[in-house]
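> call design_seq(struct)
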């Protein structure tokens, strides 16, 4: 049986198996690379610890902002009416008192036409019979009514309050305009551009005039302009009050949440640079404003409990 079982394997394989019983060698590791790796890791650990002790993280008060062009007149209407004619176009220069837009009221138009017809009839009667004193008195009364009606009609014409350029024209002939609705804007020759930022109300104690304010205009991402805070509001207001202050035309373009404080800054010029080109600021342009309010050590930010233990104060 042993003879049969031994013939299953070749003789050469059996001899090789009997002679290959050697123990493996010990794992050899080069001490050179382990030594410098240890010191590199130790150095990185010490550098990270030192950076966490000395380095700081800034905290910002961030919120939406918008550009305000001062020296620009927004003209509205006091009474409802229909646009009769538009005398100007956007970008056109106008002089003080120049007619911009004319309106007509259906009631005033009907009244003016009626008075004109009656005046013409009475005038014919007076011409036919100059001795008719009653017709003369009626004609005098109608002339006064006609002048008053024409004055009212002329008062329905919006005129330029000062010299400047038409910047915003929102109406067309035949359009109905409600009271208080904006019609046209005129930008004066001397304009100043400012920025109104809406920052979180909870950080009002940390906001002070004279601090820098970083601004990023919508449409010009990662291009920052630094201005100086000119004034900070004393009251913290809610979204409803902010919308009332800004007006529905601008407030609808902003997402307002939570209590806010109004922060103003003066822009250095009426234009700004972007990629080698010069652009004008326009009233109502949206932006993002960031005001640095304080900074703290990285280690304290990672372990907040150290702030009380070490008596650390933010700056």
């Amino acid at each position: 049986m042993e003879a049969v079982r031994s013939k299953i394997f070749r003789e050469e394989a059996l001899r090789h198996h009997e002679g290959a019983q050697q123990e493996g060698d010990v794992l050899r590791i080069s001490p050179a690379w382990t030594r410098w790796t240890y010191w590199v890791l130790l150095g990185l650990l010490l550098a990270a610890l030192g950076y966490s002790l000395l380095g700081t993280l800034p905290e910002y008060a961030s919120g939406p902002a918008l550009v305000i062009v001062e020296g620009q007149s927004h003209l509205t209407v006091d009474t409802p009416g229909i646009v009769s004619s538009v005398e100007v176009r956007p970008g056109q220069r106008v002089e003080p008192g120049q007619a911009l837009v004319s309106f007509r009221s259906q009631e005033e138009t009907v009244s003016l036409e009626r008075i004109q017809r009656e005046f013409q009839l009475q005038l014919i009667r007076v011409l036919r019979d100059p001795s008719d004193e009653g017709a003369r008195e009626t004609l005098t009364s109608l002339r006064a009514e006609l002048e008053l009606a024409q004055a009212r009609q002329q008062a329905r014409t919006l005129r330029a309050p000062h010299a400047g350029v038409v910047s915003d024209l929102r109406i067309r002939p035949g359009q109905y305009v409600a009271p208080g609705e904006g019609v046209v804007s005129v930008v004066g020759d001397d304009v100043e551009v400012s920025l109104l930022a809406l920052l979180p109300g909870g950080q009002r104690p940390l906001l002070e005039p004279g601090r820098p304010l970083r601004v990023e205009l919508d449409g010009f991402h990662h291009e920052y302009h630094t201005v100086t805070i000119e004034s900070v509001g004393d009251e913290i207001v809610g979204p409803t009050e902010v919308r009332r202050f800004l007006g529905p035309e601008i407030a609808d373009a902003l997402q307002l949440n939570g209590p806010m404080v109004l922060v103003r800054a003066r822009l250095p010029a009426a234009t700004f640079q972007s990629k080698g080109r010069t652009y004008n600021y326009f009233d109502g342009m949206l932006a993002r404003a960031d005001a640095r309010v304080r900074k703290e050590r990285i280690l304290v930010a990672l372990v907040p409990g150290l702030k009380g233990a070490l008596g650390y104060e933010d700056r």
